[in-house]
Amino acid sequence: MKPFLLALVALVVIGFGANQILTQIGFSSATAGTSPANVRLSD
Amino acid sequence: MLRLLGLLSLIWSLAVPAFAQETGDNARASTGGAQTLEDIMRRQQGIAIDDSFRSDLTGNPDAAAASSDQLGTLGGASDPDLWRALRYDSADITTQSRTPAATTLMQDGGMWWLQFREGPLLRIAVYLLGGTLLLLALFYLIRGRIRIHGEKTGRTIVRFKAIERFGHWLLASSFIVLGITGLISLFGRKVLIPAFGHETFSSLAIISKWIHNNISWAFMIALVIIFIAWVVHNLPDKTDLRWLAKAGGLFGGEHPPAKKFNAGQKLIFWAVILLGGSISLSGLSLLFPFEFNLFSHTFSTLNALGVPGWVGAGDLPYPLSPQEEMQYAQLWHALVSLILTAIIFAHIYLGSVGMEGAFDAMGKGEVEEQWAREHHSIWAQEVLDADAKRQEPN
What we know:
The structure holds 2 protein chains of 2 kinds.
Chain A: H1 2-24, H2 29-32, E1 34-40
Chain B: H1 2-23, H2 37-44, H3 52-55, H4 79-87, E1 94-97, H5 111-118, H6 120-143, E2 156-158, H7 162-196, H8 198-230, H9 238-245, H10 263-287, H11 295-305, H12 307-310, H13 322-351, H14 359-363, E3 366-368, H15 369-375, H16 377-391
Antiparallel strand pairs in B: 2-3
Helix pairs in contact in B: 6-13, 7-8, 8-10, 10-13, 15-16
């Protein structure tokens, strides 16, 4: 069962790791679509 | 005389609206310029209507009352005028959102998606997953557990290496977590909110979404691992035809010969790779919204090839708005995931309670020699021959 337990550990590590990487590179779908100031849509 | 005039005016007042309706010069005269019953019925049928009488009615700044007057604040537009302008995307608004979808505040074209997602999609999920579980239970009751027929040898042979089992379990565990969290998202509004309330579901949905988004990477990595590890063993050959012709020996006692993977396992493998790959692609499209559009390009290509015409359908919608891209991605992601989940239910059944000795392959990595001879006779012979050769004195 060692590969199974290792897979569970990898699952957690990859999950948190992916989140950390996306956070570190500043990716967020919310911020990617947001401007710091109000803008006219026609601008 | 007065009575006669009164009678004439009554007849006139009743007749005029009737004439107006019959002439058809102004179809909306009867509704005072608002929608007609015909408009409503056409809209319900999804037929386009000329609604310029509403979309153009968004106020007139030139006719604005002075700011000192009571109606001056909206610059000649009433609240209904403003909402109509928002409704038809003609309002002059400001927003911090810079996504492509920011230019559409109300999307009429998304209603079919919303209605499908809240109704038929949930029913498909229940029928497909519930139906598969029911069929498997029925199969178990009729067929029972598939036993090892011959006498067990007490010897085992290595079925899967550690890296293969690691890849399998990473894929399996991530798929189960993604399946549960995906179903929480899918059934949240219709089932979980009525059952547990908004506040409880809100926390559950936030956690579930975080897990779903981040665990998805493990699924994609595992998909690559198992593809590399097993693709060579899953290429179709003529032994598969013999195996399929005998339905894998599922109903008779005789086991058709098979290599490392039989035709049934090969079908599962390719279903996982192709459907899993497609789920990953649509998932990435949802994970990075509006970043890459899959369906617009696909629909355009299919239309150019005339594929919809093969089944007597008209052209697929093209081009798609940013929201439509996301809506198609969501539906595809959910539907393909449900199909794969139903297939995986059957895989889990046969790999555990459905077949004696099968779980050992992934659990321990080694299987009973007799099990291997019965279910994978060609592969078992190859392994035993190789072992014998290694043990021969030089």
